[in-house]
């Protein structure tokens, strides 16, 4: 009888701790990615991407549920976060010596059984350390020095990733910093002055330092469709795939761009284009709606935070996901440069999935510290009311 009561108590804790609405929105996105991979995989490959992705998704959910019950209050300690940040930065540095080159960038460690991309971990670590930094300085947050100090935390991984070179991940790191600066309450006037300075510096380099071939590379990176037989080939094929889906799509398994291998990396970088070709505008809108609901639930969990750190961490996780979604879908539509950024929960690969679920698991664990009594006071303090 006592054991049954204990089991019931554990189940109640599980249902209270986990945001099941969030899970219900993530599952259809995962399923859409799995079916897309299965549909274009040749029979002789026996659905290799599909089978491996099932393993990574299962491991991701295990991490999500386990991490939801770990007490992560130790992450609020400055010494712990600084140690994690420095360790992750050293791992990024080690890539230059021991990393495996893939598509021209040394971004991966290859362990034969699996590969690991440490920048995925750094994105989560950056959210944590910025949440910690801004949560301690809400009173004096309008001081311009906090833009530069927080920017320094982002600058180190940004440069380490940029020189791999992984332009896409460097963009995500920048967007995480920018997003958290904006929600932290820093003076927008000071931020505007910083950006004007950056633009002026770039203009100086463009007119007086960059060689013609360097300007051509930057131009092709920003406008890939100007060279559809070269640097813009991937973007061109992606836009064809998305457009050919029309309103309701060609149907599952009938996406010619991916099945005939015109579309590069249809299981990873261009999974949205492969999906849009088969499901059309209707299916694309449905996926975008699901992503919007995922972001809504993440922000909802953030508002339940008992203190500024929890609130800022939840907002940082939302910015993390929004950055990936906007950059990936933007490049699939030909609106942004091709960067190799995965689409959360849809793109093939274990590294990004593991840390997406890790971030959500930590967010769920923080809900247990929410205090209804002081929640309104905390929000008002955070918003400067």
UniProtKB/TrEMBL annotation:
Pfam families named in the record: FTSW_RODA_SPOVE
Supply one GO BP term. cell division
Sequence intervals crossing the membrane: 20-41, 53-70, 82-101, 113-134, 146-163, 169-186, 191-211, 279-299, 311-333, 345-365
Give the record's GO CC terms. Answer: cell division site; plasma membrane
How does the protein's chain sit in the membrane according to the entry? Answer: Multi-pass membrane protein
In its UniProt record, a GO molecular function of this protein is: lipid-linked peptidoglycan transporter activity
This protein's record includes keyword Transport: no
Subcellular localization:
Membrane
Q: Which InterPro entries match?
A: FtsW/RodA (IPR001182), RodA/MrdB (IPR011923)
Mostly located where? Answer: membrane
Keyword tags: Cell shape, Membrane, Transmembrane, Transmembrane helix
Q: Which NCBIfam families match?
A: rodA_shape
Concerning PANTHER family, the annotation shows: CELL CYCLE PROTEIN, PEPTIDOGLYCAN GLYCOSYLTRANSFERASE MRDB
Q: Return the protein name.
A: Rod shape-determining protein RodA
What is the protein's species of origin?
Candidatus Nomurabacteria bacterium RIFCSPLOWO2_01_FULL_36_16
Query: What lineage does UniProt assign to this protein's organism?
Result: Bacteria, Candidatus Nomuraibacteriota
